[in-house]
Amino acid sequence: MHQPRVSTPFPGPKAREILALDRKFMSQSMTRLYPIVAEQGCGCWISDVDGNLFLDFTAGIAVNATGCLHPQITEAIEKQAHRLLHFSLADFYHPLGAQLAQRLAGLFPGGGDARVFLCNSGAEAVEAAIKLARWHTKRTHLVAFHGAFHGRTTGALALSDSKPIHKEGFGPLLAGVTHVPYSLSGLQFLDQTLFKAVVAGIFVEPIQGEHGVIVPENGFLGALRRLCDRHGILLVADEVQTGMGRTGKMFACEHWGIVPDIICVAKGVASGLPLGAIIAKAGVMDWPASKHTSTFGGNPLSCAAALATIDVLQGGFIENAAAMGKLLLRRLRDIAARKPLIREVRGRGLLIGIELARNGKPAIAEREALLETALRHGLLLLGGGESVVRMCPALVVTAEEIDIALEVFENALDEVLNERRAA
Description:
single chain, alpha/beta, Aspartate Aminotransferase, domain 1, Aspartate Aminotransferase, domain 2, 7-stranded mixed beta sheet
């Protein structure tokens, strides 16, 4: 079993060269909080250009569902790379596009007939869902929730309500969007308004990931489904982060027995290659030719990776996500009982948030210090919300790797607390 190894000053000399190159030539619009210059990966481990080794509990922001370099995925990619890299589904056909559509349609909850549109990313999937909802219902208005994150393209950004900085300076955004609280009270407010007759779709993350792994209250998603049914509104589940087995089921909405009208997927669907999709009830995906298309969406290489990914996930790693998620939650809650800085540990499967608070207020500085300290000791973590640490390792993670991660996490937390006391 590997152990994290950070043996050079961080960032190391080779990394500093790349960072300087990046600052000169790359758009600086990305967040880029962590000065890691990755070179190679294997499973849940990442090595950088200076030879440091990190245990990765981010999975490329929940993208590397099967970990790095899973042999079944790399074999599928290599075989396809020698056959055909691109042949556009916008105007032609290739076998893997139809085969992947069949597989994704077969994953649709509830077992009903479904159709699939293939694109390149989660934001593109959300944009496609916006257009399909408006086309199918012949309505214009859209509803999303406070705290939502649906992407950074103009339509997806209009639906998002996670951080003000995401929208500042980019208006006007897509018109006709209303946000309500991510709660039963928000649904009651919506149900009592008069404009619901013009609502085409309600977009919801079954678990809000970027906002801090917010798990909805019991009854929320069921009430949302019933509200949509009463008023002829399409329910769109954004499963970009929560889908493809991450929460211990193929889709997070299945934890609550909910069948959406449209599901948006991306991130883990192709184990790191760019691919997104919407999966919709067959009767909903009724738009005709030329209404929506994509030059690169469903390219053969990404389709090959996605077909192999589904095989691997269904071969036992969704169950592993459920089992390892329960272990990780239990162990983190044990740590929380010893550390007053942790307000709450929450999540499903391998999407977990650890909320930090001091004197009843979000511990923002402590969260940032914890992420940096864990990084210096070889553990990669993500932030979320105001003061949440997010853990979303690859679905191939083992109990031994969880042991290592939690040892580093708790030691880093103690280091941060000691530094705050000394200050």
